[in-house]
Amino acid sequence: MASSDLQKAPEAPGLYVHIPFCVKKCRYCDFLSFGVGDCRRRYGPDIIERYFYALFEQLDAVVKETALRDRLTPREAELPACYDTVYIGGGTPGLADAGLIARLLEKLATVFRIGGGAEVTLEVNPCTVSDDKLRAYRAAGVNRLSMGVQSLSGRLLNNLGRVHTADVARRAVDAAKKYFDNINLDFIFGIPGIAGSCAGSAPPQSISELRDCLRFVVSERIPHVSFYSLIIEPGTEFDRLQTGGELCLPDDADERSMYHELRYFLTENGYIHYEISNFSKPGRESRHNLKYWDGTPYTGLGLGAVSYLPASPNGDYLRFRQTADLSEFLSTGSDPCVKDRGYEIQERLDIDARKRDYMMLGFRKLGGPDPERYRRLFNGSMAEDFSKELRLLKERDLIGADNKLTAHGLDYANEIFMMFI
Ligand code: SF4
User: What domain range is 395 assigned to?
Assistant: First the structure.
């Protein structure tokens, strides 16, 4: 680890690796992910293997400090050597052969120092889970599994364009529990009905359909759960359906009722609500995701992955993104014809910008940004630097006297974030 704030940080940075392939694209999804069938038709049947080999080649370049290293990371960025969390996300990394995941983890451990107690998360889809794969993940060092269940209603899974059924999800959770005690399940609420009109047989998700998911989480003693409010993102199939008048979305009041219900139900059942969309049993918070909200640096590898790293010599931070072009990514390795850099600097943050960033992301957590950590990172006082903003937020009852989010603040979190842009 090089100079600047990294040395003052109480924990190591996080490492994210993006695997962009899915069985098929979901209707609501705007992540950088592709249906693997399309990719196989375009790039050949071994596209997943080629992707991993390109990643391995990039990792070798990092160790050897070759010219390719400069194509991956701005020279001024201080690429950390040690990490205490690894998150393999996507896409559906669980779609890959488990041997590739094992080789990836092996490679990461030879290139970087990954602490013995590191949290190592793998994202899986219920329909890609099997006993053999789960056993292999565990043996390879994965110690946390994150599964996209999204709903336990067949009609809603169908509306979302998911490839699994509720039964498949239940069986996948059962299997996962045999090998992992640290499990996250992702759910979505506010799921629309789909029809030619909103009348009749295509209502949006009901409270009772949401309660089925909540009861399942509690009865299965799942240690971590995320509930995301559905957002119609531009360019998705849901966007097209909405334009055509075929989506029946819950109204704002119903969507908020669902949020209040799930928040009440989970906290009544021993879960800590620690981030707007995240709940955990005590001590089971996502250590990796907390880094995003705590101003901790992270390195992103793989297609379109974002890094947030200090830059020498002036201590600014860079937020930069690996290429999102799969053809380009596959050729970043040995192809001598590809000379352009394979990343894009999205933002250069001086200390003032970093402070605002810290506040904005910190207010995603129920406890708000930590003033002690602020002092350590910026050698300043949060209360003094943001006295005006904090006063306004309190006046509007978005945060309390202790700078924690209020129930009202949870419903209007965007207003809080806007204050720091
Ligand atoms: S499985 Fe996840 S990443 Fe893949 S298309 Fe569906 S929502 Fe997107």
Answer: 352-421
